[in-house]
Specification:
Layout lengths: L1 E6 L3 H6 L2 H7 L3 E7 L19 E5 L9 E5 L5 E3 L5 H4 L4 E5 L3 E7 L7 H23 L3 E7 L23 H14 L2 E2 H5 L8 E2 L11 E2 L2 E5 L1 H4 L2 E6 L11 E5 L4
Parallel strand pairs: 1-2, 7-8
Antiparallel strand pairs: 1-14, 2-4, 3-4, 5-6, 6-7, 8-12, 9-12, 10-11, 13-14
Helix pairs in contact: 4-5
């Protein structure tokens, strides 16, 4: 099973940069998760409704041109869930789950606090509320893979300029502790780090100051999974050959049948 996740920073913008062509040419993917649609379902480009004859699902935000998630799968899900029960975030289209019976795959988009105190407060509310749902997912007794832009770099290895960002959203101590709690207490696994321990493996770069050219980045995009399916992960790749947004796609292959 190959799972791909990408923050598109606008599905129409990413498509103008070749996203549909890449999805159609990329071999072997079974589930493709996308965050930050910034579009209503009726505005999704036709070629991205069912790439490779997949089943496409979309959860746009109520606010036009904002947030939203999408998910495509080769196999039709048993059920599709578009909320986790907190209205503030469900209205922003931040959660989209495809349930395949024995395994569920989620496209998730955490709020960013970078725009100021009001947005950081929203992010902090998400950090309070979402662990309840994570625990509920664990109690279902099935394997779960949650893909998406968490807007948090977990450890110093996960961003270039960690010393100067300790007071900035995305690397605040309580945000990092939240991820540690998700891994160590709730029991999800940071799948990428089980396969690749190297430094300077980033998925997001600022548009300022030649950050991408100089690889001054952050690892904000994750696939976190329950231990059973995480243990089957065989290969991880951050795709850098084409640029569809300010994020790079994260591709992980699992020895697991969808």
């Amino acid at each position: 099973m190959r799972i791909v996740t990408l923050n598109a920073n606008g599905i129409r913008s990413a498509n103008n940069k070749g996203l549909a062509n890449w999805m159609n040419s990329l071999r072997g993917w079974d589930v493709f998760c996308l965050q930050e649609m910034k579009a209503n379902t009726e505005d999704v480009p036709e070629e991205l409704l069912r790439p490779k004859k997949s089943h496409g699902h979309f959860h746009p935000a109520e606010k036009k041109g904002y947030a939203g998630t999408a998910l495509w799968s080769k196999q039709k899900p048993v059920n599709v869930i578009k909320e986790f029960g907190v209205g503030e975030f469900d209205r922003e289209g931040r959660y989209l789950e495809a349930d395949f019976g024995h395994v569920a795959v989620v496209s998730l988009y955490l709020p960013s606090g970078a725009a100021g105190p009001e947005r950081q407060a929203s992010k902090d509310r998400f950090l309070v509320e979402f662990p309840k749902h994570l625990r509920a997912l664990r109690k279902r007794g099935k394997e779960v893979v949650i893909c998406g832009d968490f807007n948090i770099a977990h450890k110093e290895i996960d961003l270039k300029n960690y010393k100067s960002n300790k007071k900035n959203s995305g690397f605040l101590p309580h945000e990092r502790e939240w991820l540690t709690h998700v891994f160590d207490e709730i029991g999800f696994v940071d799948v990428f780090r089980t396969l690749d321990q190297r430094a300077e493996q980033y998925t997001w770069w600022s548009n300022r100051g030649n950050a991408y050219a100089n690889n001054v980045g952050w690892r904000l995009d994750y696939q976190i999974a329950t231990p059973g399916i995480a243990a089957t992960a065989k290969k991880a790749q951050i795709y850098l050959e084409e640029k569809f947004s300010d994020h790079a796609p994260l591709i992980i292959d699992y020895d697991f049948a969808l």
